[in-house]
Predict the 3D structure of the following.
Amino acid sequence: MNPIHLRGQDITFSYNHKPVLDGISIQVLPGEIVGLLGPNGSGKSTLIKLLSRVLVPQDGRVWIDGHELSRLGQRQIARRIAVVPQVFEMPTGFTAFEVVLMGRTPHLSWLQSESACDREIARAAMLATGTWSLADRYVDQLSGGERQRVIIARALAQEPQVLLLDEATAHLDVRHQIEIMEIVQRFARERELAVLIIFHDLNLAAQYCDRIVLLKDGKVFANGSPREVITREGLRAVYGVEMCVFPHPDNQLPAALIASK
């Protein structure tokens, strides 16, 4: 059995005494893509922040590759976990290559400059994400899809064990959504990355995730394969809407559409 790269146990968190997460337990295995679904306010983004130690659980614990997260320094965490946030403020005045090279920072000592090896790792991340042709362009000149691929290249340049993505495909057109998910899927398989990604698009999650965790009111409502989790009854209970769920004609994975009135 493969070791668990990321595990959270009985995680509880509140904002100003208002409960957001209530006893959440979650794990992600090497090479696995886990989708995190649920309505707005169900605690998805908060959970990502807790799993990367941007926030600290008020109860419960988080482990990365057998190490308790609270016992690791920020640099040690950054060497193991890369995060692609929902909103990433691109630093102006930098080229795409310079931004990707910033992903090597956790591996450098204080005031140490990037080596030829670091630059090659950044270049390889850009080649893998199809962004090497953008290397010399300033980031404020890039399109939304190009920026998102550069951000993912930066995360991959960290050489993490775990990749956390908060709605990485939001605001992208269908083509760019597919490009991003194929990049993530390839790296999960080739590098045995443990990937946890927040979705609002049920169909995109069903097509690319090995497993889906569905949240409702700060608790895990369902946890299983896309076929087990994306059901008409489950979506009605969590989202409060009627959906038609049927097997996709190409691969039999679940597809969901709003039910007609």
About this structure: The CA atoms of residues 215 and 221 lie 5 Å apart. Residues 6-258 form a domain with the Rossmann fold fold (CATH 3.40.50.300). The first strand starts at residue 6 and ends at 15. The chain has one domain: 6-258.
